[in-house]
Amino acid sequence: MRWYRASFYYFCGNSFILIDSKVKGIFYRSILLSFFSVASLCCGATESNIQTELSATRAGEGKVQVVQEACVTSLMNKKKSEWENKTQLTFNGYRVQVYMGNRQRTSKTEAESRENRIKAKFPEYNTYISFSSPFWKLRVGDFRYHADALVFAQKLKSAFFDMSEDIYVVRDSETLNAELENEEKNELHEK
């Protein structure tokens, strides 16, 4: 028995394109994707509400009527205002990890004692104790750049020689208060 693969011819501009049956689905998807991408570029992205965009009347187009409860609209508006008035900024940064232990009975107290020692010597830096099973971790500082974290890690190694083997820089997410950041920028511009 002999199997034949089905082939399809499509007219494109001034020539015909031969498309295999296996490629046919991919071809249709790519045409559909390109159509929607061109349509989205033509329409332009605006910051308006999707409900008002759908309900708007345009010449030569049909009308879409959105039927939903008022609580859905209020939830959407609430979420939008939360994003616009966001006071916490989270971004990737660096911290110096000072301790990581998985001994069930002593790791938490060890992390807390190291935290107290570091806070006594460097009170201007934030410390973070976290538990990610099975490890207790102590991390110090909020640094945007790896170089800044390396400099502080060297300070810690020289100040606490007994902990120097455990001290290294790790990537971590930072959360900053946006209002404080804006105030600091304004103070710098005033000077």
Could you please describe the fold and organization of this structure?
- By secondary structure, this protein is α+β, with helices and mostly antiparallel strands.
- The chain folds into two domains: 1-43, no CATH class; 88-181, Alpha-Beta Plaits (2-Layer Sandwich), CATH 3.30.70.1070.
- It is built from six helices and six strands.
- A hairpin with a 2-residue loop joins β4 (127-132) and β5 (135-143).
- The chain is elongated and about 75 Å long.
- Residues 1-13 have low confidence and may be disordered.
Quick structural summary:
With 191 residues, this protein is an alpha+beta fold. It has 6 helices and 6 strands. The chain has helices at 21-43, 50-55, 70-84, 107-121, 146-159, 178-190, and strands spanning 7-12, 15-20, 88-101, 127-132, 135-143, 168-177.
Q: Given this structure, which CATH class of the largest domain is correct?
A: Alpha Beta
User: Helix count, per DSSP?
Assistant: 6
Order of helices and strands: EEHHHEHEEHEH
Question: What's the CATH H-level superfamily name of the largest domain?
Answer: Sporulation related repeat
- Given helix and strand content, the structural type is alpha+beta
Order of strands, main sheet, comes to 4-5-3-6
Distance between the termini: 87 Å
Tally the structural domains.
Answer: 2
